[in-house]
Design goal:
GO terms for molecular function: 6-phosphofructokinase activity; ATP binding. The structure is a single chain. This protein is of the alpha/beta class. It has helices spanning about 45-55, 65-80, 120-130, 150-160, 175-180, 190-200, 205-215, 255-270, 275-290, 300-305; strands at about 5-10, 15-20, 35-40, 60-65, 80-85, 95-100, 105-110, 135-140, 165-170, 185, 220-225, 235, 240-245, 315. It is globular and about 55 Å long.
């Protein structure tokens, strides 16, 4: 694989996200959607999309299977994202999201997706290993498909280390634990993922930050970017802890908020920004995504506006 980009994202379990809105969700009756929207989805794909929107450039590596896989690639082409894909036997998954207008609630249906055999998931590792020139940032994000071993992201982390790249990871469960044991540059857990990784249940933001610092001190990550919902967010390194209270907004959808946060953070770090400046834009991008229904992700004008409302505290 040859072309230049400072950032490459890896999404082993991508999807096409379908979203609509209905007045009320009730059983048996036909629920007629008021809208229909299809977006390319999956953690790393969303990261690449947001980086593109913010004025950066990122390439996306992901598998494609069947008609949905072809649609996924077409949707990314339309957004100007450079794709590097490999073909799998199974059909790329679809997810769907329904906004219930009367109750102001959102329902998220995440489908299991295809199973990858050993030849298929090893093709991803081969694609990554053959990137020339190698990116400075390799962002691996999202769930692992059935058939892919728990240490898949740890194997990618080893490739990144060998090539001198910064490995950024956003996943959960055994896949996160295995990669953290290998050691990565940056992880972006939410509170549930931190609970799984640390086995602890801190009671407040400070205690969560202490738990994140312990991960850094153990060599599991150089930076922990911790998103804490109503408690805000924190950026934890060996030398400092930055905390940002949540921006007071009324959320319409949480889909892709974490991906937008990570995209802005990585893009600004890759651009040479300071950690506080990168963290500020990340918090703004995550909040900007909450403003819109369905699977739209953040808009650059909202990110710019909200960045001025972010308060960064050094703890």
């Amino acid at each position: 694989m040859s072309s230049t980009s400072d950032i490459v994202t890896v999404t082993p379990n991508p999807a096409v996200d379908l979203s609509t809105a209905v007045d009320r969700i009730v059983p048996v009756a036909k629920l007629r959607g008021r809208s229909q929207r299809r977006d390319p989805g999956g953690g790393g794909i969303n990261v690449a999309r947001v980086i593109k929107r913010l004025g950066g450039d990122a390439r996306a590596i992901y598998p494609v299977g069947g008609a949905i896989g072809n649609l996924l690639r077409q949707l990314l082409d339309e957004e100007g994202i450079t794709s590097h894909t490999w073909t799998i036997a199974g059909e790329t998954r679809e997810d769907f999201f329904v906004d219930e207008i009367s109750a102001g609630k959102q329902y998220r249906f995440i489908l299991p997706g295809p199973r990858l055999d050993e030849t298929e998931w090893k093709q991803c590792l081969k694609l990554i290993a053959e990137i020339e020139p190698f990116p400075r940032f390799l962002v691996a994000s999202g769930s692992l498909p059935d058939g892919v071993p728990d240490d898949f992201y740890a194997q990618i982390a080893r490739i990144a280390k060998q090539r001198g790249a910064r490995m950024v990871l956003d996943t959960s469960g055994p896949a996160l634990a295995a990669a953290a044991a290998e050691g990565v540059d940056l992880i972006k857990p939410n509170l549930r993922e931190m609970r799984e990784l640390t086995g602890s249940e801190p009671s407040d933001a400070y205690a969560w930050e202490v738990a994140a610092r312990e991960l850094v001190e153990k060599g599991k990550a150089t930076i922990v970017a911790l998103t804490m919902g109503h408690l805000g967010a924190a950026l934890v390194t060996r030398d400092e802890v930055l905390r940002a209270p949540p921006i007071p907004i009324t959320p319409r959808s949480a889909v892709g908020a974490g991906d937008s946060f990570l995209a802005a953070l990585v893009w600004r770090l890759a651009s040479g920004a300071s950690r506080p400046d990168a963290f500020r834009l990340a918090v703004a991008a995550g909040a900007a995504t909450l403003l819109h229904p369905g699977t739209e992700l953040c808009r650059p004008e909202d990110v710019a506006r909200l960045a001025g409302q972010v308060t960064i505290e050094t703890v």
